[in-house]
Every structure is written in C-alpha cells, then in structure tokens.
C-alpha cells in the first residue's frame, strides 16, 4: 500500500553531516554540537510519526471507500522524511542557521507523502474526506491540476498540520501531501530524470515532447474518468 523512500534513521549520516556543517561555523562548540545532534534525532522521530499518522488516516479512508463504494481511490502511497544531509543543505542554501527550530519554522516539506490515485475525481474526493477530520489543519494548498505549471506538471499539493501525541507533549507537525494520478506520477518521474539526470544537449526537445505528453495524458485521463463514471452508474 505504501513505500518508504528513506532509511528510518541513520545516526552515522546525521553525525557526519552535523559535524561538517557546524565545524565550519565560527566559534564551534562541542557541547552545542551534541545538543543539536540530539535535536535532529528527535526531529526525525517526530516527523516520521507524523507520516505514520497521515498514512493511517488515508488507509482507513481508502478501506472504508472500498466497503461502501467497492472502489479504492488510492493506488499506492510513497513517503519519506527528508534526509539530514538534504535538510542541512537546504538550510545552507537559504542562508539559515543550522538548528532544528529554524528548520521547523522555514521548511514545510521535511515530511512528505505522495498519494497516487486511480482517477482524477479520486484526488478531490480524498482531499475532501481527509480535510474534514477535526485534527487535520490545512496550512497551504496549490492545485496544479486545475492550473498546471508551464512545463506541464500536474498534481495537488497540500501542507497540513498533524498532532503527534508524545509522552510529554503534543507536537503539531507539518506534512506535505502530493496527490496525483498514475499518469501524472509517471510524467513527473520522467520529467525529474530529464531535469536532473539528462547529460545530453537536446533538453529543449525533451521539454517540448514532455509538454505534449502532459496534454495527451490529461485527455486520456478525462476519457477514462468518463468511462469509469458510466460504468459505475
């Protein structure tokens, strides 16, 4: 049902990343380094727990939908907590301090889940049911399905706040959701490879072809949605 796209917790990686970044900081303090290291370990736990909460909520909705409507809106889910190296690099690129408080305040996609749906209508049905839950707070919404990006990218992006019940406190934690169809996900995967792994010089040709593919996928998905609706009547 879902796939984790990360190692749960790599203490060696965290230690090496933190040591390199903080030792480059003026006035490096070993005690402060240790405290920051512990903070990032705790951060990983809290955000991983928030992903568990979101995954469980979505799975329950999907299972209930099957019982009531004999249809599963979710094809599969992929989730990940941003690696410490990636998180530190993002803080550095933004010119921000290397600490957990700054990361939590400025980076909303530390925890992310990609929800792949079978049909376009499934995306909005799932969004509506999910956001109706009292402990889910919507922080940000961008609909790239109704308003695709110039390159053809389509997906519904949500950032929500989820309460994580810890032993001594409740941590309200942001989680980013990208909800899209199988076709949209296939397109996004190829576009990502073209952008980051393509070593050839014909990038413009690929971009033009991908934009046309995005239009064709949209047309096919609309036809399949209509067929599905007719069958379900």
TrEMBL record:
Keyword Transferase: yes
SUPFAM superfamilies: Nucleotidyltransferase
Tagged with keyword Kinase: yes
RelA/SpoT domain residues: 79-202
Highest taxon listed in the record's lineage: Bacteria
Pathway where this protein functions: Purine metabolism; ppGpp biosynthesis; ppGpp from GTP: step 1/2
Matching Gene3D superfamilies: Beta Polymerase, domain 2, Nucleotidyltransferase
Record-level GO BP terms: guanosine tetraphosphate biosynthetic process
MF terms in GO: kinase activity
Keyword line: Kinase, Transferase
Listed name of the protein: GTP pyrophosphokinase YjbM
Originating species: Jeotgalicoccus meleagridis
């Amino acid at each position: 049902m879902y796939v984790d796209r990360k190692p749960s917790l790599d203490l060696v990686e965290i230690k090496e990343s933190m040591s390199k970044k903080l030792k480059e900081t003026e006035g490096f303090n070993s005690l402060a380094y240790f405290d920051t290291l512990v903070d990032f370990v705790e951060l990983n736990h809290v955000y991983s727990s928030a992903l568990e909460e979101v995954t469980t909520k979505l799975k329950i909705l999907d299972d209930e939908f099957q019982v009531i409507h004999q249809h599963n809106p979710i094809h599969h889910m992929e989730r990940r907590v941003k690696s410490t190296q990636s998180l530190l690099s993002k803080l550095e690129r933004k010119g921000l301090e290397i600490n957990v408080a700054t990361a939590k305040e400025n980076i909303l996609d530390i925890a992310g889940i990609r929800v792949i749906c079978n049909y376009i209508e499934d995306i909005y049905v799932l969004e509506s049911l999910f956001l109706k839950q009292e402990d889910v707070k919507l922080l940000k919404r961008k609909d790239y399905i109704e308003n695709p990006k110039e390159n053809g990218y389509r997906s519904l992006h949500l950032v929500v706040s989820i309460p994580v019940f810890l032993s001594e406190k409740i941590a309200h934690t942001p989680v980013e959701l990208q909800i899209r169809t199988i076709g949209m996900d296939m397109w996004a995967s190829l576009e990502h490879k073209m952008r980051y792994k393509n070593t050839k010089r014909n990038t413009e040709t690929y971009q033009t072809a991908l934009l046309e593919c995005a239009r064709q996928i949209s047309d096919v998905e609309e036809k399949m949605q209509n067929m599905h609706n007719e069958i379900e009547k």
